[in-house]
Specification:
With about 160 residues, the protein is an all-alpha fold. α7 runs antiparallel to α8. The mean pLDDT is about 95.
């Protein structure tokens, strides 16, 4: 079904997704550290997809891209409430994914990945997101790296 092939494109057209991205962009306007806009989300999606192809992993592109596009969507809530963006993002993602045609089993898988993407040593899709998120950052070129909260910074291009 052609309509099912690119459900992740529905996410980038989703009104709530775009409202939250705009809010995150405004909240990060003066941020000296890495930002969490669409460019970052697409970097994580593409790196995840490359890792799947290179490592022969079995993840559907719609699931990968949805998880990557939504993995930081809880940032605005974190900045407002100082809670976890992982948990807030998983909750927010549910409605967006449902609106974009994802099945309940897919929504649960993506939510689990969003909840676990910030943890070192996870497994499955959460671990793939974590690695891709880290690989998307260029700590070795960052002027704010010395004060960044990341414990282990990229010293070069990460796979």
């Amino acid at each position: 079904d052609e309509d099912m092939d690119e459900r992740y494109n529905r996410i980038v057209q989703n009104e709530e997704f775009n409202r939250l991205l705009d809010e995150i962009e405004a909240l990060e306007a003066d941020r000296i550290y890495c930002r969490h806009g669409l460019e970052h989300l697409l970097d994580v999606a593409r790196i995840s997809y490359i890792q799947v192809l290179e490592d022969g992993l079995d993840y559907d592109k719609n699931i990968l891209y949805a998880a990557a596009l939504l993995h930081d969507i809880g940032r605005a809530a974190e900045y407002r409430d100082a809670g976890s963006h992982d948990e807030a993002g998983a909750v927010i993602a549910e409605g967006i994914l449902r609106d974009c045609g994802y099945a309940e089993s897919e929504i649960q898988m993506i939510q689990e990945a969003i909840r676990g993407h910030g943890e070192e040593g996870g497994s499955g899709l959460a671990a793939l997101l974590h690695r891709s998120d880290k690989a998307s950052r260029m700590c070795f070129r960052c002027k704010a790296a010395d004060t960044c909260k990341w414990k282990v910074k990229n010293e070069g291009i990460e796979k």
